[in-house]
Amino acid sequence: MNVQEEILEKIKKYQKIIIHRHQRPDPDAIGSQTGLAEILKVSFPTKEIFMVGKKIPGFAWIGEMDEIDNEVFDDALVIVTDTANAPRIDDRRFDQGDMLIKIDHHPNDEPYGDIMLVKTEASSCSEIIYDFYHHFKDELTLPQNAAHALLAGIIGDTGRYLYPATTAHTMKVAAALMELGADNSKIGQQENEMPLPVARLSAYVYENLEIMSHGAAYLILTTEILDKFDLKDSGTSGIVPLPGQISDVVSWAIFVQQDDKSYRVRLRSKGEPINEIAKLHDGGGHPLASGAKAKDDEEVKEIITQLDQLTKENEV
């Protein structure tokens, strides 16, 4: 019995299934969570299927979260999608169920759960969910709203099909989801739009991005700067890819100050893996897209130095 078959066996066994994803979600986190939930709701109409985590109004067009009592976790199967390590799981009750399954596409540096389906070669967790459905297409049904959610996840995590993780298989999955009713153009436009404060912050990024001699770049967004744009940390995700549009930039870091004066760090690269730097600073992720933390300004400087050294060592 392979892992996919084992997971389907557990899904069939449990009457209650609760699906989690990571904190501060992106389209793939919400998309994979929602896509799986909608597949299971239609395929097993007598089961109780729930999605939990903080409600994110900006992603309500992909899926809406449920509010459930603690008792619901009793004798439940818990599935976590798109989350590399347990501390990042949204809704901390994830370990209160009867069994825990991890479905993810990040490097499996911090394994958790009773069963793990991890495919690092996949463009997104949404792609993995579609492949799970397709493996059992004679037993499972993928409705239009699930196709919509999964395609939103794929478009988000591939950067509109621009990132290296986009494969021929990814495009086949996207085409299959479109055939099932997902509107690629509409979803792409939805993800491409930004509120006016974020658009104004984008101009600030281009004006204030520090680009070092070897191609590493960084931007520090303090709480004072964000206040000027009437934004919080959650509103900064849309500006993270922007430095990559500059030809001189090969890797970059965006530092966003938190209320406790620490920094959330987003690391990106066009070629050289930066996830090892992230691991040194309470983080991790994909080779070319990772997250980390900096407790103070000194750790910010340390990360900048490490990023600069990495680009220097790999300069052509």
Q: Any overview of this molecule?
A:
- This is Bifunctional oligoribonuclease/PAP phosphatase NrnA.
- One of its GO terms (molecular function) is nucleic acid binding.
- Pfam families: DHH, DHHA1.
- InterPro entries: DDH_dom, DHH_sf, DHHA1_dom, Oligoribo/pAp-PDE_c-di-AMP_PDE.
- The protein is of the alpha/beta class.
- It folds into two domains: 190 residues, inorganic pyrophosphatase (n-terminal core) (Alpha-Beta Complex); 118 residues, Diaminopimelate Epimerase, Chain A, domain 1, CATH 3.10.310.
- 36% of the residues lie in helices and 17% in strands.
- The protein contains ten helices and eleven strands.
- A six-stranded mixed beta sheet has the order 6-7-8-9-11-10.
- The longest helix has 17 residues.
- The N and C termini lie far apart (47 Å).
- The model has no long low-confidence stretch (mean pLDDT 95).
Helix content: 25-40%
- H/E series, N to C? HEHEEEEHHHHHEEHEEHEEH
Amino- and carboxy-terminal Cα gap = 47 Å
Whole-number total of structural domains = 2
The largest sheet is: 6 strands, mixed
CATH topology of the largest domain: inorganic pyrophosphatase (n-terminal core)
Instruction: Assign the CATH architecture of the largest domain.
Output: Alpha-Beta Complex
Q: Which strand order do you get reading across the main beta sheet?
A: 6-7-8-9-11-10
Mean pLDDT: 95
Oligomer: single chain
Structural class: alpha/beta
By CATH reckoning, the class of the largest domain would read: Alpha Beta
Domain DDH: 16-154
Protein name: Bifunctional oligoribonuclease/PAP phosphatase NrnA
GO molecular function: nucleic acid binding
Domain DHHA1: 241-312
